[in-house]
Amino acid sequence: MLSPPRTVVRADGGLYAMERALRRRGFTRVAGADEAGRGACAGPLVAAAVVLPSGRRGEIDELSDSKLLTPAARERVYAQVLDRAVAHAVVVVPAAEVDTRGLHVCNLAALRRALATLAVRPDYVLTDGFPVDGLDVPGLAVWKGDQVAACVAAASVLAKVTRDRIMVELAGTYPQYGFDEHKGYVTPEHNAALRRHGPSAVHRLSYANVAGARLDATE
Question: Would you give the end-to-end CA distance of the chain in angstroms?
């Protein structure tokens, strides 16, 4: 948390206001971290961390919460983040590990690992919604951080694009599930494929709909 006097960030300050305020307080390298795939029942959980440069170099066209961007826009932003970031890191957690360790534990561990493997040490960390313990720098969990902090939005794009590309690749191995369409999230079509074919090696067996389909397939 920031020490007094309090830093006030205006609600209408835009996506870069929080980082500007932190830099005014002396936190030069502000890292954002976010994940993709928490709600999916198949495929990996992916976490990413990003440190954007200050000034105009760090202002990326179209940058927003990855869920609010079209696939084409996400790809454009992804390329710009990789080109402009001071540092970035991506961590992929397989479905089997999510089953073994639990989603929340894996989520926090992946965010922590992504931040720890950045090429530069951040002065401050912003995370989307979940506080991440075990960091040796100050940080803040921001509600809907991917919509209010540029570095978190950039991390959300890296995580989302990385995971979507993995799911498209997995669709080639497991074409019967339609991973290229729903990216492993729960949809009526995905559930119907699960009931018809049973779970694949990349489904999360600890999820209720997958466990139920597994039982159906053995009857």
Answer: 54
